[in-house]
Amino acid sequence: MEPTNLFDMDDKESFSRLSRRDALKRMGISPVAASVIASTGVTATQAQAADVKGKILVVGGGTGAIMALVRLHRAIVEPDITVIAPNETHLYQPGQVFMASGLYKQEDIVKPNSDFIPDDVTWIKDEVAAFDPDGNKVTTRGGKVVAYDYMVVATGTVHHYDAIDGLTEADIGTNGIASVYLNDPEKGTARGGEITWQWFGELKGAAKKGRPTVIYTQPETPIECDGAPQKILYLSADYLKKEGLGADYIYTTPADTLFALDPIAKALEETQKRYDTITTKFGHRLTAIDVKKKVATFEHVYEVQGKHDPQENAHERIEKKEKVKLKYDFIHIVPPMKPSKAVSDSKLSWRKGRAKGWLEVDKETLQHRRYPNVFGIGDVCGIPLGKTGGSARRHGPVVQDNLLAVMQGKKPTAKFDGYTVCPIGTRYGEMIMAEYNYKGSAPTIPFLSPEKPHWIWWAFDLYLLKPMYWHLMLRGLM
Fold first, then answer.
1. Residue 14, pLDDT above cutoff 50
2. For residues 264 and 266, what is the distance between their CA atoms, to the nearest angstrom?
3. Alpha-carbon gap, residue 263 to 259, rounded angstroms
4. Which domain holds residue 347?
5. pTM score above 0.85
6. CATH number at residue 138
7. How many helices and strands (H and E) does the chain possess?
8. Domain count, the chain
């Protein structure tokens, strides 16, 4: 007898045969889905709009920018808002991993930005080339000077494939090279997802003839969704495994662990045991690539034991570096990511430390530490955690409330707790939903062990999260 609730189903094979429509229907009435949505703060009514005055400038056209814009537009009686964004299309960027694994197509993750920007918002379809926070103005790439009273910076990250010697964007999709991150928001294309799905097929073809060597890289810079490199590793390995095929997989990371949270790291170690011959090389950073010869060069940083210090009763630790060359048949590259040059070169950026170049905002209020009429949202923020869409969603109400407080001459009191969510598909049909904040693990559904792969989270991420993104998150309703 067919169960009446998606989450009553113990048979994962039965679940895998559910249509998208049935899965959505069942998730819509499930207690777990209801708990997830309830935890996001969706409300049936909105607070009374504030009667405040001032020119608000939103810089950017991605997730954080749209969330901030629509919230402020709704929260102010007669809003005077300008947005500077070159992209006429909006990409649901988390969907690129599902494109890469053959479950979405490009039309599933692309919509016009005009669907989300209110008609009475002034939209300058350009990019900011320079910030002048002392003069409360910006200059666009086209030379237009735009003044503001208050500003929200939401410029996201820039992908630097050129930081890897010998590599250009044009190489992605050739000679066994893929990167799920490759996209062009201004043109509305998500080429990385399409290229990587084709790469899956080429990898399968090679595995039928032999045993290819496949490398997956993670850069040392902060990246959008820290778990994406491992998602591609596990999903491509499972893709081959379902066909009775295998490869020699190599995962490289500058870190010394698979994940920042120890329970998640241990769970990922167990995940790797499902697939034959996954070798993880810690302390390895991709520095160069010979595209034609298929050789990747890494900087390997490690420590050796030095002399014994009798006063400390311990051996000193000496850092060593070496170059390591690895041959491969296929490689998936995640590029180093940085803020835009306009942000990093401006007075708005951190001048030193690990966050150098990123937007200098308070990690809780998201207010600029030196320019109180400036706020940040999304990946551009130089804070310890939060380069995910889930974080930007939590930033939204904080920026709204605190900017309104400043406009009313009050002190900002709303606080971002560092919430970050990292969904890691460990195979087709199962996912670890790593949720954490400044204090540590912060699962939305405590009775679902965050370190355990669940098919529930796979279903949620594949079927429910995208419509929630389009119809709730980008409408400022959660």
1. no
2. 5
3. 9
4. 55-159+338-407
5. yes
6. 3.50.50.60
7. 12, 23
8. 2
